[in-house]
């Protein structure tokens, strides 16, 4: 059996997380340069977001990603302009991460862990992984890493700084809580995921289904070993 691919290899690069951290820096930079003008900071963030999106489209990205990115930054800018508080530029990020933490936790409770949904979509497996009790359990444990390390940590840090009105600190922390935190979350959740799988499991791309006698309608992997008829292990690509 060949070495299992890492979760980072499955999920891909960090480009999206990097892009998400640049407009907030532009907002803070414009806000400081214009003597704490929210309007200038908001304009800088929107312009930078649009330019970055156009650059990604030219490099082969999707136009929908450009629209969503600019719309999100524009909404954050409008909120800050409406309230007159610069820290409210980060309010949408704070609220969306709080909602994400609740959604991921709920998905684990109902046995549809979102990490499994994401990985299944990325590798073209759809929901086949749900027929494998070992994968469902492993994805559930790994999803808790995302709930706590990714979303809850962001809510706590951003929430405290937002409450204190620390605009510059919010901009700096946003960079730290973007791709470095995503990379750390992927690494830690990857360890939790693969350590939760039996050693003889063929990997994420090869769920054991009921047709193997090991899926949702068959015995679990812990009881399969006690059966008199041995099951030939699958071979990972």
Task: Indicate the topology.
Layout: H1 7-11, H2 15-33, H3 38-58, H4 63-83, H5 91-109, H6 114-122, H7 133-164, H8 167-176, H9 179-195, H10 221-224
Helix pairs in contact: 2-3, 2-8, 3-4, 5-7, 7-8, 7-9
Structural write-up:
The radius of gyration is 22 Å and the shape is elongated. The termini are close together. It has 237 residues and is mainly α. It has 10 helices and no strands. The protein has helices spanning 7-11, 15-33, 38-58, 63-83, 91-109, 114-122, 133-164, 167-176, 179-195, 221-224. Helices cover 66% and strands 0% of the residues. Helix 2 runs antiparallel to helix 8, helix 7 (133-164) runs antiparallel to helix 8 and helix 7 (133-164) runs antiparallel to helix 9 (179-195). The model is unreliable at 213-237 (pLDDT under 50).
